[in-house]
Amino acid sequence: MQNSGISIIIKKLEKIKSAFKEKIQKSSAASLELQKVETEKQRQLVGNIIIAVLTERMPVRKALLLFPKGFTDPSIHAAWHALCHYEADEDIKVQDIEFNNQQVELLELIAFTFKDGNPLAQNIIDAYKPYYQDDPVSYENGINGIIKKLFRFLNF
């Protein structure tokens, strides 16, 4: 008698456990999908920002401040650095028109790739990776942002 009662309880616990696992998997899949959609929206925003810079509707410095806070997407990191280089190389662009054209073409490529929410090609991301360590990208607001700024200040 007691064995059958225990086995019924065990079966019920196993059902609860499997239902819980299934719920966690669905929640995880939904979370990943939400994160994907958010990243695509951030890329589209960055694409619009770059177009505003290229059409001279917005200065580069303001554009850099409008980038999404706390982004983790390597494509957006590369775009941020490409825009920084575009601003920093102003004196070279005046002297070398070909260099200027190459930078504008790269920014156009990034902007139009981002318009559909697509990531950049890996070779573009890799070209800017050496600069990621010391980038002064805006961190998210709140306690997480403060902690990240502090760690960056302390060189962790």
Q: Termini distance? A: 62 Å
Strand content: under 5%
Order of helices and strands: HHHHHHH
Radius of gyration: 23 Å
**How much helicity do the residues have?**
over 70%
Largest sheet properties: none
Low-confidence stretches: none
Mean pLDDT figure:
81
Number of domains: 1
How many separate helices? 7
Overall geometry: elongated
Structural class: mainly alpha
Walk me through this protein's architecture:
The chain has 156 residues and is mostly helical. The protein has one domain. 76% of the residues lie in helices and 0% in strands. The radius of gyration is 23 Å and the shape is elongated. The N and C termini lie far apart (62 Å). 15% of the residues are buried. The mean pLDDT is 81.
Pick out its properties.
single chain; 156 residues; mainly alpha; 0% strand; elongated
Give the helix/strand layout.
Layout: H1 2-54, H2 60-66, H3 74-88, H4 90-95, H5 97-115, H6 122-128, H7 143-153
Helix pairs in contact: 1-3, 1-5, 3-5, 3-6
